Amino acid sequence: MRLTPGHAREVDLARVDLFDLDLYSSGDPHLVWDVMRAKAPLHHQVLPDGREFWSVTRYDDVCRVLGDHRSFSSERGTVVTHLGVDDVAAGKLLTSTDPPRHTQVRRAIGTKLTARAVASWRDRIRRGIVRFLKPALDGGVFDLAERAHRLPMIVAGPLLGIPERDWDELVQLTAMVTAPSDPHFQLGSEAATLAISHHELVTYVTEWVKRRRSAGGGDGSLLDHLMNVRVGDAKLTDEEIALDGYSILLGANVTTPHSVSGTVLALAERPEQFTKVKADLSLVPNLVEEGLRWTSAACNFMRYAVSDTQIGGGVVPARGAVVAWIGSANRDESHFTDPHEFDVTRNASRQIAFGFGPHYCIGAPLARTTLQIFFDELLRTFGSIDLAGEPQHLRSYFIAGMTHLPVIAKK
Q1: Residues 6+ apart with CB under 8 A from 269
Q2: Exposed, middle or buried: residue 380 (CB in 10 Å: 0-12, 13-18, 19+)?
Q3: Helix (H), strand (E) counts: the chain
Q4: What's the whole-model pTM score?
């Protein structure tokens, strides 16, 4: 999707289709969200097949939907690609489980992903990023978005315990889950793409666990840690390990590559912002937070109302699906001054690109550290970044990202 909106225009909310994939691949959803925040903070849409959902677009409403599990449950599914089909993994997959079970499992898994734990990986992460940037040193055209899909596995693959020979396959499968309608990743129909990718990812983790158990030992990786997690008096079941391993793989490969590409695009289009950070590398953490706000790679999450619930000036009926638009919340003018301006000096620490509430991204410390090291290396290595062609945006209403971003990085 366009990250810099075009000129303001009339938007007929009665005709808006938030499931129109063209809106995200070649359209301008930020203009639509601007109007929704102002005129329809609770928006209702019925799809041609009869499925319906309510949308919230204001920052405070989005935080409430994501943060209040007693009113808005995760246990029927949390991503819009599954709208209308209850999640068969509810109560077992971490992302589709409400507290208190969610809190117990998250706490046990998260000990390996705290900011303190991630700090010990900084040197390894930096080596991976230096390796990633090396092909750009020749001054030729470097397709950052295409290559960035592999960046999370370069960083997280060794931490997860996944051999390099499997990285490309897993990157492809996770992209199929998050953008099943994009021609770069689609296999048959959207439904078929989702089914194939989900099955293959869960099977991969299941087989990984079997091999590790038969080998009789581990290497301290994150997937090894999953095998030893105890919640109360019991270990996770093999099914829970497979599902949560799938979720961690998915999370690792979603936010980081698209945040990298979107932020680099913003810097290439605003060379004065690039120059400002290069002259003062203490601004890199600011740049990362502003980039997360600006890109909002996971641009929405879904919940289901537990009972009739008032929000956004209206009522969501019991069992109604509610889509919380993070991409809109992070451009809410009541919380971010000049929200459609990309400003590396902005304090954007209140951005919610990693979500909000109980389901705040468990991998956020790793993603944030990776982004900070990436932009530190990029700015130390290169003197400018120029676009070498038009970006190509991902065809997805769940992930705001790009499939192609040709750039030339000059030393």
Answers
A1: 4, 387
A2: exposed
A3: 17, 14
A4: 0.95
Chain-centroid distance of CA 18 in Å reads 18
- Of the options 1.10.630.10, 3.40.50.720, 3.20.20.70, 3.20.20.30, the CATH number for the domain spanning 78-301+354-410: 1.10.630.10
For the chain, what's the residue count?
411
CA distance 140 to 235: 51
The residue ranges of every structural domain in the chain are: 78-301+354-410
pLDDT digit string, tens, across residues 180-216: 899 989 888 988 998 999 899 999 989 988 888 887 7
Does the CA dihedral 254-121-350-291 come out positive or negative? negative
- In this structure, what DSSP letter does residue 404 have? E
Q: Which residue from 232, 226, 193, 202 is spatially nearest to 212, judged by alpha carbons?
A: 226
Mean pLDDT by 10 residues, the chain (411 residues): 83 93 93 96 96 98 98 94 85 90 89 90 94 94 95 88 91 89 90 91 89 76 85 84 86 88 98 98 98 97 98 97 98 97 97 96 94 98 96 93 96 88
CA distance 105 to 234: 11
| Interacting residues of 306 by C-beta distance below 8 A, sequence separation 6+ | 70, 71, 72, 73, 318
Task: Report whether 373 contacts 127 (CB < 8 A).
Answer: no
pLDDT in tens, 375-392: 999 999 999 999 999 999
Q: Would the CA dihedral through 275, 280, 281, 287 be positive or negative? A: negative
